Amino acid sequence: MINKKGQALVEFILVLPVIILLIFVVFDIGHIILAKNHLENVMSDCMEMRSNGKDITDIRNHVNSDKEYKITLEETTNSYKLETKIKLMTPGMKRILSNPYKVSLERRIIDE
Hints:
19% strand; 3 helices; alpha+beta
């Protein structure tokens, strides 16, 4: 007769690391998506400031006032690029993706 409680405990112990790893992966992916959404919001603010005639120094000051993420702004001809880096916490994700993971967003402006 097999002890059902002991068998369930062994199965739980074997599956537990995989479940914990999956939870951390979900947190890492959520953090990346949150950072991308934040960059979208900041880029929207930058484009609105540009359409209102603000110069690049005002836009840079607005971007650098953000305390949550360190965001860099690059301006080329009719193009703006925002970039931030996210530190991953999952050991497996650190090997699959670069650590820190670079999240970037670029918008091109077409003047008519």
